[in-house]
Design brief:
Udp-n-acetylmuramoylalanyl-d-glutamate--2,6- Diaminopimelate Ligase, Chain: A, domain 1, Protein-Tyrosine Phosphatase, Chain A, 3 domains, six-stranded mixed sheet, globular
Length: 490
């Protein structure tokens, strides 16, 4: 592809030595065989050092945000992050413009919402691609995922594959980091959904306001056609009020809205409720428990109904979702207790999860959770306090400690729970913590294992060791069955 085509629609500050170079590969990581190198460094000296390393690999063109005096064709742009995203769009021939893209942003609920959307759209007869935390899906082919929202060239390559496979829609999770780093510049969204905004990522964003500001970038007139907001959420209510998109739709359980649910009945294994979607009414059953998951259904109903999909087709799509890996997955022990595994790793996520389960627990609620290392440290005592207030027994354990001491993280969680209750124990080894929970569990108890969900690793000192909450529980259940069979034989 000619360099001029790659640079279309990008605001340029300076151009040196361009001569219709053919570009077949692009990189921002000093990869070999790179025709076009992009330096993401904004500091002048760091950028210069980055480019000097890249020049050893003989790129044809260099793109930077700093005006460098270098002996190679180069381009200076005003915003390197935005420019990279636009270059990625151009390099893959703008696949998002040939499909309809639906974005979902918010602290919690993104993954579940994208799976519901995919199911509804498929029931409506469309081919759908999905981009998100658990995995990427091209029609029905699963592609591993490394980030909630991939980096621009990976993102556009995925979209290109989706277009070539015949996808009509792409549903994707859009993280706050992706918006901050302008990963989705160049994509115009047919619809964008806001789920909620609660404390998370304060290790990166210096306040909830700056976190909210990043999220709000998705809901601009030049970015999104149809905006869908949860107006039970404080930030969602504000966003909806000031949004200038072509059309704005609201959903809620408590506040007046365009789409809402009534007669909500929830159990551990699902929920049943009536949905009113702009005066079109249908009863629905969703096979994932938790009242907060009703919100995830409502945002999808609001979006799809506004896109013109019949409510009965939407109902079929909602009810076809059998589950989402790592999101409120339930398992029943032969001893009569239940286990719920969920990705909840924020204060609000943990509180919603524990409250939802507590309402449905006939006996004791046992919570097993930790907090990730090298992330927002302020949420640790908050999550300890939440568990102390709701759970009957809390087991504080390791999550992904990364480069931190897991026991120090657990001690920080303990600072929040200790003033509330003495009904907790610290077990650093996560497998041992889960095993302890199953040993003390009795019939009618529910064990909630929160924080890692679908993850199949523990990140310890830069190494990802294989670990799965689900596999541990299944192994423990197998042992219970074996012991039970042995006792029957005696």
């Amino acid at each position: 592809m000619k360099i001029e085509k790659i640079l279309e629609a990008i605001e340029l500050k300076n151009v040196v030595g361009l001569n219709e170079q053919d570009i077949s590969s692009v990189s921002f990581k000093n990869d070999e065989n790179c025709d076009l190198f992009i330096s993401l460094k904004t500091d002048y000296q760091e950028c210069l050092n980055d480019v000097k390393k890249a020049l050893q690999l003989n790129p044809k063109v260099v793109v930077t945000q700093n005006n460098l005096d270098i002996d190679i064709p180069n381009v200076t742009v005003r915003d390197i992050r935005s420019a990279m995203s636009l270059m990625a769009c151009n390099f893959y021939d703008n696949p998002s413009k040939k499909m309809k893209v639906i974005g979902v942003t918010g602290t919690n609920g993104k993954t579940t919402s994208t799976y519901i959307l995919k199911s509804i759209l498929e029931k409506a007869g469309y081919k759908v691609g999905l981009i998100g935390t658990n995995c990427n899906i091209i029609d029905h082919e699963i592609v591993p995922s490394h980030l909630t929202t991939p980096d621009p060239f990976e993102l556009q390559q995925l979209m290109r594959q989706m277009y070539e496979s015949g996808c009509d829609y792409v549903v994707m999770e859009v993280s706050a980091h992706a918006l901050y780093f302008r990963k989705v510049d160049g994509i115009y969204f047919e619809s964008s959904i806001f789920t909620n905004l609660t404390q998370d990522h304060l290790d990166f964003f210096d306040s909830m306001q700056s976190y909210a500001q990043a999220k709000s970038q998705l809901f601009k007139k030049n970015k999104t056609k149809l905006a869908v907001f949860n107006v039970d959420d404080e930030f969602g209510h504000i966003f909806a009020r000031y949004c200038n998109c072509e059309r704005v739709i609201s959903y809620a359980l408590d506040n007046p809205s365009d789409v809402f649910a009534v007669n909500v009945n929830v159990n551990l294994h699902g929920s049943k409720f009536f949905v009113n979607a702009m005066d079109d009414i249908s009863e629905m059953y969703f096979k994932i428990g938790g009242k907060y998951n009703v919100y995830n259904v409502l945002d999808c109903v609001a979006c799809c109904r506004a896109l013109g999909i019949d409510l009965e087709v939407i109902k079929d799509g909602v009810e076809a979702v059998e589950g989402v890996e790592g999101r409120y997955n339930t398992y029943k022990s032969i001893k009569g207790y239940n286990v719920v595994i969920d990705y909840a790793h924020t204060p609000d996520g943990l509180e919603n999860l524990l409250k939802s389960v507590k309402e449905l627990t006939p006996n004791r609620l046992i919570a097993v959770f930790g907090c990730g290392g090298n992330r927002d440290v302020t949420k640790r005592p908050i999550m300890g306090k939440i568990s102390g207030q709701i759970a009957n027994i809390s087991i504080l354990t390791s999550d992904n400690p990364r480069f931190e001491d897991p026991n120090s993280i657990i001690d920080a969680i303990e600072c929040g729970i200790k003033p509330i209750t003495s009904n907790y124990i610290k077990i650093e080894n996560r497998k041992n913590a889960i095993e302890y929970a199953t040993k003390i569990a009795k019939s009618g108890d529910v064990i909630v294992i929160a924080g890692k969900g679908q993850e199949t690793y523990q990140d310890i000192k830069g190494v990802k060791h294989h670990f799965s909450d689900k596999e541990v529980v299944q192994d423990l259940f197998d042992e219970e069955r074996s012991r039970s069979e042995l006792q029957l034989q005696m």
